[in-house]
Amino acid sequence: MVNLMNEKEDTRQPSYFVAFPYNSDSYKGSTVLDFEPSAQYSRLHSYLKGTPSAVSQEMINEDGSLEGGATTYGGDAPSRLLLYSEYNFIRAEAALRLGASGNAETFFQEGIKASMAYAGVPAYVAEFGSLVGTEEEMLEQIINQKYIANFGVLMENWTDWRRAGFPDITPIPTPIAVYNEVPRSLFYPFNEVSSNPNIEQKESLQERVF
Q1: Region of residue 7 (left: phi > 0; alpha: psi -120 to 50; beta: else)
Q2: What is the pTM of this model?
Q3: Mean pLDDT over residues 111-134, rounded?
């Protein structure tokens, strides 16, 4: 997420993440695949966690990371379920791929604007709001922006990835994870299979639902 937003100097980052180094305008992502995991990365911020407390200078380490407990949050951020931004990205995809009414780029831009408004930051539609390339490339633009806009919305981004394949995700391999790929579906549970003789269990977690 951080890397995807860094590519476009995304103005939502100050709402989504704590800068690293602290008090800079830089953001650094982190993954369990990092060769040397450390505390030197951007943490989740007010968009998901609510109003932050002030950070005292003595709680900022020399490398720009924060001491544990350097800031607390009010927990007053809303639980986001179905957003107006998501609605517009859905309509953008429908117009692009299915010939649904309306203009895909107009919906795409409206989705970006709505997401920026939720984050309380200026929109960058003028620079990044044009759909360009092949249909597949335009779809990737739509899904990537939908992915950013749905930050903190459970399940939707996984569902979009399994049907569209975007954004480009690097799976976490075993033994760090229990499975080498991003699952596209889940096995039917034992109690369903044992109770319903008509169920045919899936052969792998890569079988598509869509």
Answers
A1: alpha
A2: 0.91
A3: 88
